[in-house]
Amino acid sequence: MKNDYHHPVLVGEVINYLDLKQGDTIFEGTLGGAGHTIAIIKEIAPTGKLIGVDLCSQALSTAASRLKNYKDIIFLKEDNFANVKSILAGLDIEEVDGILYDLGLSSFQIDKSTKGFSYMRDEMLDMRFGCEGKTAHEVINRYSEEELREIFYKYGEEKWSGRIAANIVKERSREEIKSTSRLAGIIKDSVPPEHRYKRGHPAKRIFQAIRIEVNDELKNLEKGIEDGFDVLKKGGRMVIISYHSLEDRIVKNKFINFSGRCTCPPLLPVCRCGAKKRGRVVTRKIINPTQEEIMENPRARSAKLRAIEKL
């Protein structure tokens, strides 16, 4: 199931919780290297359909090559999974039996994309999943100190957001910050030595925050969940694998809302979230990788799977 592009996470669990049958139509919103895809196709072939979506053209090219034996039942689209409704409409598909969103970066994106996703590699600041929109370079060199501090704290949950933002603004006034290595160095030097590596490399959380801002990840996730649930057939299932607490919180709250429980703040006098029982959460608790899987693929360590069934 592995490939050089991506090591798929929780493959057996994905197949189990999607509850696949021959002939099912499945929407895979984050195709990556098609690691999960092959396992899904084996369950739904020869009469099923799989719609695979990714913003990365290299991912689609790799997937097309790996899936050439199944070309009659797969439909690949270069798009954002948040556009699930328009993607399906373009294929004259009204409903699907299952949806999978694997939200993690692929090994290719981290190691070989040259887009600056990793603080461990010296690359130009880009961080876009696709080829359109603002880049990490623009965020770092154009955003105000206040805006940087806000996204570092909100999306990176970084205690030292203020110091890091101030030092970035100071350093870019001398010379534009163009590379990941220079940015990582500024971040590291902004955190007091005694706190620097308490939660891993200090650049990890800041790079995450910048990537979320560049790709508008959390808004797209909310839209992808809402619109995806709308196009699920009754009895269909949505499975989502997230990799950090911000994503998992959104998934958890959306699923709670779909199951009919109010997610409004306790002090709000009237429910505004529109909770209505439309689904049944089928994962009583978060599903994590086994220790064996983590030993084989350390990047799986932070994966969290949740699943819901539409009533």
Report on this structure.
The protein starts with 10 loop residues before the first helix and ends with a strand. The model has no long low-confidence stretch (mean pLDDT 92). The chain folds into two domains: 11-108 and 217-310, Vaccinia Virus protein VP39 (Rossmann fold, 3-Layer(aba) Sandwich), CATH 3.40.50; 113-215, Orthogonal Bundle (DNA polymerase, domain 1). The protein is globular, with a radius of gyration of 20 Å. The protein is of the alpha/beta class and 311 residues long. Strands 3-2-1-4-5-7-6 form a seven-stranded mixed sheet, with helices on both faces. The longest helix is centred in the middle third of the chain and has 14 residues, at 161-174. It has helices at residues 11-18, 35-44, 57-66, 84-90, 107-111, 136-142, 145-156, 161-174, 180-190, 203-215, 217-230, 245-258, 291-296; strands at residues 25-28, 49-54, 74-78, 96-102, 232-242, 279-281, 304-310.
Secondary structure topology:
Layout: H1 11-18, E1 25-28, H2 35-44, E2 49-54, H3 57-66, E3 74-78, H4 84-90, E4 96-102, H5 107-111, H6 136-142, H7 145-156, H8 161-174, H9 180-190, H10 203-215, H11 217-230, E5 232-242, H12 245-258, E6 279-281, H13 291-296, E7 304-310
Parallel strand pairs: 1-2, 1-4, 2-3, 4-5
Antiparallel strand pairs: 5-7, 6-7
Helix pairs in contact: 1-2, 7-8, 7-10, 8-9, 11-12
